[in-house]
Design a protein that fits this description.
522 residues; alpha+beta; Porin; ten-stranded antiparallel sheet; 8 helices; 13 strands; elongated
């Protein structure tokens, strides 16, 4: 132990002489093994299972030199007393073999002085707490060692005798000796709490450390834990820099050494935290930019894009278009990002595209009563009915007659209606209303029923001739719509009539909801 104490003192003195930043005393328990490989018969199944690790300890001095400005990277050399080696035990089955040995135990215990040289990274977890990782090579020197054996022997009188022996381990290159030098790699991971740290470590020897009387290879391996305490917080011979205002910025770097401030503001007060000292900040309570003397950049249109970056500084826009509004190429009021037809003017309800106009008459299909036939807007997009057709229909209507007090058409009426069939076939876009009327002679309800029957008789004749019933509408109005005076026979004769009216759309003939209801009832 005197040698160990002398070695530790030498390490501390050397660290001081070289301006060591920090020194720590460290130590802890560990488990050591000697990994052996050989070509002995039965080694793997019979002998190797008897080997186990040796419990031991490590103690020494750790030094630390920062090598980065942020003090996260360090070099950590050290010198440690390390117990290494392994154990062997075997219990003999006296029932199957003839032997007087009941069991055999052996402990191989070399001790080394290891000198690791690690690179260490520290990750801050709090004001005084950090996590660290450390790794690097090490070189070890044989220090002392011993090999002890213990055998339990069975005497002739069945008494058990314990036989012990112990001999020192010697270093050298001869058989039964360990090598003077051991080298390999090691790694540590742990936590540092202020001046105290705890870590787990692993080291793996890379060279053959023992010469056996047979062909084999032996490598040290150690796993364990270390607890340490730093003996100083700053360089041993370095005075602490002055910081009169205690703001964490030393006076030589502090533009305001007597007033606590921030690092961004060069050590001067900065109420709004924008990095511009209050003494030169024209907007000290509003975060801004140094180029604007501590004030926010101007933004006249309030779109969040500074004027010096805004291509349209007086019109609110978006970042994508560098401060300008979303473009509307076709000027239809729908911006290009929403416009399905950005180069054709359209409407919002059609996603910026022009409304469909099948017959190209300038009236959208959704407003065009005749979307497949061109017509003027005054006629809701339907072709205007020729005057000659209207006059012809009116003439035919005057040729329609019925048997007395009956809805049966006369033969001459059928001949006249055949002209209507031809007219409707030649103009498939037209619809026709058939209105039956009567005079006021007799019962009003009977007159209404008779006028409806006569109108339907005309409709049925046209349907039988091939006219689609959806193009025809028959209604009876009875005596409600006279066109002459019912007090004279001539007037009553005029009122007893059937009217035929052409149109391009039913809206022109039956515009009211009451007509739709009456048509549905029929």
């Amino acid at each position: 132990m005197k040698k160990l104490f002398t070695l530790l003192c030498f390490t501390v003195l050397a660290s001081v002489c070289f301006g060591q930043l920090r020194l720590a005393l460290a130590g802890g328990p560990h488990q050591s093994k000697i990994l052996e490989t050989n070509d002995l018969p039965g080694w793997t199944d019979l002998v190797k299972p008897g080997y186990s690790g040796r419990s031991g300890f490590n103690v020494g001095v750790l030094a630390e030199f920062p090598i980065s400005a942020n003090k996260r990277w360090h070099i950590q050399p050290g010198i440690f007393y390390m117990t290494k080696g392994r154990k062997y035990s075997h219990v003999y089955d006296t029932a199957s073999i003839q032997t007087d040995s009941l069991s055999f135990k052996q402990q191989f215990s070399p001790n080394y002085i290891d000198i690791p040289l690690n690179i260490t990274y520290k990750l801050p977890l709090g004001r005084k707490t950090s996590f660290f990782l450390s790794a690097g090579p090490y070189i070890g020197f044989f220090y002392t060692g011993k090999q002890s054996t213990e055998t339990r022997l069975l005497e002739a009188n069945n008494a058990v005798r314990l036989k012990k022996s112990e001999q020192p381990i010697e270093s050298g290159n001869e058989t039964w000796k360990v090598k003077t030098i051991d080298y390999g790699v090691n790694a540590r991971a742990g936590l540092e709490f202020g001046s105290v740290f705890v870590s787990a470590f692993f080291s793996q020897g890379m060279n053959d450390i023992y010469t056996a009387p047979y062909n084999g290879k032996f490598n040290n391996q150690v796993m364990g834990a270390t607890v340490g305490i730093w003996l100083n917080k700053a360089p041993l011979f370095e005075s602490k820099p002055k910081d009169r205002d205690n703001d964490g910025i030393i006076d030589k770097d502090d533009a305001c050494p007597n007033e606590p401030g921030t690092l961004a503001a060069g050590g001067c007060p900065d109420r709004d935290g924008d990095g511009v000292p209050d003494k030169v900040d024209q907007c000290p309570d509003v975060p801004g930019l140094r180029k604007y003397a501590g004030c926010p950049p101007p933004d006249r249109d309030g779109d969040g894009i500074p004027d010096d970056e805004d291509k349209c500084p007086d019109v609110p826009g978006t970042q994508k278009y560098r401060g300008c509004p979303i473009p509307d190429t076709d000027k239809d009021g729908v911006n290009d990002e929403e416009d399905k037809c950005p180069t054709l003017a359209g409407s919002k309800e059609n996603n910026g595209c022009p409304l469909l106009d099948t017959d190209k008459d300038g009236i959208p299909d959704k407003e065009d009563k005749c979307p497949t036939l061109a017509g003027p807007k005054s006629n809701n997009g339907c072709p205007e009915i020729q005057k000659e057709l209207i006059e012809r229909v009116n003439y035919v209507a005057k040729q329609i007659f019925f048997d007395n007090a009956s809805e049966k058409l006369t033969a001459s009426s059928m001949k006249a209606l055949d002209e209507i069939v031809t007219l409707m076939n030649n103009n498939p876009h037209l619809v026709m209303a058939i209105d039956g009327h009567s005079d006021n002679t007799g019962n009003a309800q009977r007159n209404l029923n008779l006028s409806a029957k006569r109108a339907n008789a005309v409709k049925q004749y046209l349907v039988q001739k091939g006219i689609n019933s959806l193009r025809l509408d028959a209604s009876g109005f009875g005596q409600t719509k006279p066109i002459a005076d019912n007090k004279t026979e001539a007037g009553r004769a005029k009122n007893r009539r059937v009217e035929l009216r052409l149109a391009s759309d039913w809206g022109y003939i039956r515009p009211s909801a009451s007509w739709k209801a009456s048509a549905a009832s029929r």
